[in-house]
From TrEMBL:
Entry keyword set: Signal
Annotated protein name in UniProt: Organic solvent tolerance-like N-terminal domain-containing protein
Position of the signal peptide: 1-21
Length: 187
């Protein structure tokens, strides 16, 4: 009996640790979700999130005083959120009060478009790790300016922002370092 209680307690603690690892570090009430659609005119967002261990699609009203944040926690606007984005959201009284992007910074170790995989170095749970992801069939590639691109612009060593959902990369954006200033030429 005591042994069963201990195992149950350990399992519960392990489950709670995993749940906390998936939450937004800036808000313990945040839930991870995938944006299906954002409708600024109707002030709603349709998202897919986990509820009772299954994926549920839900349309939720955006609060009047909603807080929009990019993945670094800087204030943003609704325009940065698009279908396929992974986000953290905080819901209160049936409305979203906070919406934060959940893209991840990474460095490409290897990209193989024939095998549809990318291996990247990134931070996960506070540690530097190397992970291999499947590239989604309908992946969106973007250059550093946000223009549509193709996989050929990405090479080993590139810094990128990725959106990962269920071990697949659904979006990849190149993050070039800011250009160095060129001194003016003298006469």
């Amino acid at each position: 009996m005591m042994r069963t209680m201990i195992f149950t307690l350990l399992a519960l603690v392990g489950f709670m640790s995993l749940a906390v690892a998936d939450q937004d570090k800036t808000d313990p009430k945040a839930k991870e979700a995938k944006i299906i659609k954002v409708d600024p005119k109707a002030k709603t967002a349709t998202v897919k999130l986990k509820a009772a261990d299954k994926d549920v699609e839900k349309t939720i009203k955006l609060a009047e005083e909603i807080e929009y944040l990019d993945n670094t926690g800087k204030v943003a606007n609704i325009d940065i959120f698009t279908a396929g984005d992974m986000v953290f959201l905080v819901e209160s009284d049936g409305q979203i009060t906070k919406l934060k992007k959940n893209d991840k910074e990474a460095k490409i170790s290897k990209i193989d478009t024939k095998k549809h995989t990318a291996t990247v170095k990134m931070k996960a749970e506070g540690k530097d790790v190397e992970k291999t992801f499947k590239l989604a069939e309908d992946i969106e590639y973007m250059d550093s300016t946000g223009k549509v691109a193709n996989a050929e612009i990405f090479t080993s060593g590139d810094n990128v922002m990725i959106v990962e959902c269920e071990n697949e990369i659904t979006k990849m954006k190149r993050c070039d370092k800011s250009p160095t200033a060129t001194p003016p030429k003298g006469n």
